[in-house]
Amino acid sequence: MLAYTVLPMVFTPPTRATLIEVARLAGTSKTSVSRFFGPERDKLSPTLQARIEGAAAALDYRPNLMARSLKGSGSRLLGLLVADIRNPYSVAVMHGAEMLCRQHGYALIVANTDNDDAREQDLLDALDAYRVEGVILNATGLPERQLAPLRDRALPLVLLDRDLGLPELDVIGLDDEGAIDMALDHLHAKGYRAVLYVGEAPERASSRRARLERFEARSQMLAMAASSVIAGKDAEPTLEVAIEAFVARHSATPCAVLAANGNVTLAVAHAFRALGLTMGPVGFMGIDDMPWCALVGPGITTLAQPTEAIGQAAAACLLNRLMPLDLAFQYRHRPTLIARGSTQRI
Amino acid sequence: MLAYTVLPMVFTPPTRATLIEVARLAGTSKTSVSRFFGPERDKLSPTLQARIEGAAAALDYRPNLMARSLKGSGSRLLGLLVADIRNPYSVAVMHGAEMLCRQHGYALIVANTDNDDAREQDLLDALDAYRVEGVILNATGLPERQLAPLRDRALPLVLLDRDLGLPELDVIGLDDEGAIDMALDHLHAKGYRAVLYVGEAPERASSRRARLERFEARSQMLAMAASSVIAGKDAEPTLEVAIEAFVARHSATPCAVLAANGNVTLAVAHAFRALGLTMGPVGFMGIDDMPWCALVGPGITTLAQPTEAIGQAAAACLLNRLMPLDLAFQYRHRPTLIARGSTQRI
DNA sequence: CTGAAAGCGCTTACAG
DNA sequence: CTGAAAGCGCTTACAG
């Protein structure tokens, strides 16, 4: 059934009709044909329009956007650089952004940095080479130095989720403080009095830092015992060890774990299973709702981000600068609490 | 915390150094600068090379790929049209394809048809307008008519997962027959004797048809009682009803459900939960492995597709026609069986 | 309402 | 080894 193969076919480059051929067939000038396919179509007499339309149809003519972008307007291309394309968050955002782009005649080039600084740099260059008119960036690292040239060139740039400490740049994302408050208030209301916050390396992203800081402040306000730990491949201690120790340390207190995002939620769920912990008696909630959250144990309580809206907002922010569009959008988005069994103590 | 806003900033279009400016600064001709950035760099004297390099660096010059594509080679752009971008399958394939493309100097424009014929048509046109050199298509529908023009134009096209009955087109995907055999053999070995196959509307995709047909043939060979049902928004009967009826009908026989893909696996898992069925006693396995499969109930047994490899194969197939690359790839990929508790009867 | 002409940023024979 | 010139497919003042 398997077949390793090399295609023997020789490739014949596709050959398309050009503006000039349409003009010739329609018995008119390039100028008129160009007008027909642009915003000045109305300035053409009905007869001419009909002739051009017929000729174009006969030749199956489609304007070459590359050529068009060389002279007149821009490339009608926007770039989206995500840090981890396998993350459902990225995909949903991408979906939202693409919708809005298409709606306004733009296409989206999506590229994936895999959380790698060097790759991010390369891809930024590549997007630049294709002359994208703007970039939505879910930044990987701390690329002050990398971004500076982009910013100086006035390439419209919108940051997703992660701030970079450059005040001139727009950042679209979750209302981090609001989200943490919602989570802790919910856990508190459910009777939990000790919380372990599981996040990812905070030095890489402002949103992670913001969430962690708010966690510390808010848990203190609520008089909850609070700890935090970093999840990650080679994190020390491991998640399992950290959770086990936390629960042991607070054996007299109702304990809960709060996961900072979707990836972490997955990792914590695995740790619960490995440790034989029952969700509910040991509370668990996560930021980001995924389709499987209802299926694990008694169901995992989550804070759902409006990911599509975030993607659209990022695109809207960019588009507003490229054309006089006045699209409404918001910078900071509130999540929705979805309560399930994992935060039900009894 | 919320802020609806319209950006007040006026956009200053980015202005880049051009070939001609580099030439001027380096005191040489456009031709030489062009050569410096192409494959003929070696034909330039070391001194000239140094001068151009210096000038380009000073001006932060980057070749405009749009302009380049107009004259010489192609656009260095490949298109990937996926039917459902929120499906982990699509994302993994995309990841694999993108890697290989980048490795060979191509960028990938990804677009999402949302399983909509009209959108697919539009997007195909759009990709065409950007003069992509080839398209990887995870086809939505039955677009014989839509594809014909592409094929006639000799635009390199590779089909993903779904065949369209056009023998001239390459199709990359799972070894559907092998996969079904592995699944049924496993269920049989675990003692299940009645199987319900849950798939999606088969008329829309050859791979769905192939899996269903093989399911019927193989279950008969194994003397298993077999039924099948279509999952979907407005499918009749609903999944819950169908599963409940199936289990009731075979109350004397060990029953199992086989889900045809990742989306269906999710839907079936929800149905199990709604019905209060225990996985294992009622067997359950699915094609496509997802990160959460180990977390639900006793763990869901799956057939993992080598999705990254499939994506790379699709890209390799395309790339082979664009340049003399001789990349090895395979058309039909075998899955890996991951046995978990959901197919453990006791 | 229509068209001749210059030019977008690059590449590629063709001469030296 | 180097460069002048034509041209890729389009748009856009500028004239009629």
Automatic annotation (TrEMBL), chains A, B:
It comes from Halomonas dongshanensis. InterPro entries: HTH_LacI, LacI/GalR-like_sensor, Lambda_DNA-bd_dom_sf, Peripla_BP_I. Keywords: DNA-binding, Transcription, Transcription regulation. This is Substrate-binding domain-containing protein. Residues 17-72 form the HTH lacI-type domain. Gene3D superfamilies: 3.40.50.2300, lambda repressor-like DNA-binding domains. The keyword Lipid biosynthesis does not apply. The keyword DNA-binding applies.
